[in-house]
Amino acid sequence: DQQVKQNSPSLSVQEGRISILNCDYTNSMFDYFLWYKKYPAEGPTFLISISSIKDKNEDGRFTVFLNKSAKHLSLHIVPSQPGDSAVYFCAAGTQTLTGGGNKLTFGTGTQLKVEL
Amino acid sequence: DTEVTQTPKHLVMGMTNKKSLKCEQHMGHRAMYWYKQKAKKPPELMFVYSYEKLSINESVPSRFSPECPNSSLLNLHLHALQPEDSALYLCASSQKVGGADTQYFGPGTRLTVL
Predict the structure, then answer these.
(1) Interface contact flag, A41 B43, Cβ < 8 Å
(2) Contacts of residue A100 in chain B, CB cutoff 8 Å?
């Protein structure tokens, strides 16, 4: 059962335009969400996170929006740059779990290509 | 500084070999993780160490043996692997032990099992 889904395996955007990457989740216990960017043969790089007490978090060119009622989050990148071309994973976790270390559930990823 | 380092970067081993992957972080993080990632798939959690103790084992075969010698180091010992174990092995760390927290990943070790 895929609890975190990224339904678009790929997205192509022109340089300077907005990139919007989407993520849906089914587990209502998730209350902390993250976006990671990954280049081939490298580890994921943390981009931005959001807690369920917020509906928006912004960091430079990156903004994450959370719609709890729809169990949907999105990452907006404005303006898009060629160096943004990578695979983007959303991940979700539960802040209220105690002990034992924390587990993140990752989506399947979206390949973003920013074209000149 | 959010750096997690991993060695080696690449590893090729036969099915009868014994090898180890190493991971190090100096951020004072108290939780460390091993993930396995196959091509075009998300990272798949293998083990979690909390305060240097194994807290989660995601039913990983015993041919993978984790070890946490101290709060900064995490090893993954490999023995009698199968070709299907070829993958990118990622180490991560996080400050918090319980609940969700940002995990910071290392660059990974690309493992090929012949």
Answers:
(1) no
(2) 48, 50, 55-56, 97-98
pLDDT digits (tens, 9 = 90+) for B59-106: 999 999 999 999 999 999 999 999 999 999 999 999 887 667 899 999
How far apart are the C-alpha atoms of A54 and A15, rounded to whole Å? Answer: 29
- Residues B21, B76: contact at Cβ < 8 Å? yes
Residue type, A52: S
Please tell me which residue of chain A has the smallest CA distance to B108: A43
Distances from the Cα of B80 to the Cα of A40, B16, B19, B83, angstroms: 27, 5, 10, 10
Tokens of B70: 């101290």
**Residue B92: how many CB atoms within 10 A of its CB?**
26
Does the pLDDT value for residue A99 go beyond 60? no
Of B41, B102, B110, the CB nearest to A34: B102
Burial of B74 per CB tally in 10 Å (0-12, 13-18, 19+): buried
Whole-number Cα distances in Å, B59 to A38, B27, B47, B70, B75: 26, 28, 9, 23, 18
Count Cα neighbours of B69 within 13 Å in the Cβ-side half-sphere. Answer: 9
**pLDDT (mean) for A32-56:** 93
pLDDT digits (tens, 9 = 90+) for A21-42: 999 999 998 999 999 999 987 8
